[in-house]
Amino acid sequence: FAPADYQQGEGYRIMYLHVPAAIWSMGIYAAMAVAAFTGLVWQMKMASLAVAAMAPVGAVYTFIALVTGAAWGKPMWGTWWVWDARLTSELVLLFLYAGVIALWHAFDDRKMAGRAAGILVLVGVVNL
Q: Rounded to an integer, what distance in angstroms lies between the CA atom of residue 39 and that of residue 24?
């Protein structure tokens, strides 16, 4: 029951969905990095399964953050997309999630798939 913003009008309410989605998208990737590190260092099988399970969920949250951000940006900035560092970083995060999902399904050997996906996750941590 928040009143309309004096500058943004009713459109600012999309931030109630956008900001938590962006936080979850990065938080899930950080959890994936911990699981990938655990799987690569201590060879725990459940760690690579956790990475594979978290990747689609993180991709959905990242997609929601990108779409709601674009929907907010159109009336505020006059354009759907600007190549700002934050927006581009979130887009790269979506590509990293897609890459992890693709790598997981590219190998028949789950141990090799977990190792490859874990390496990609750890390389992608620099994006956070």
A: 22
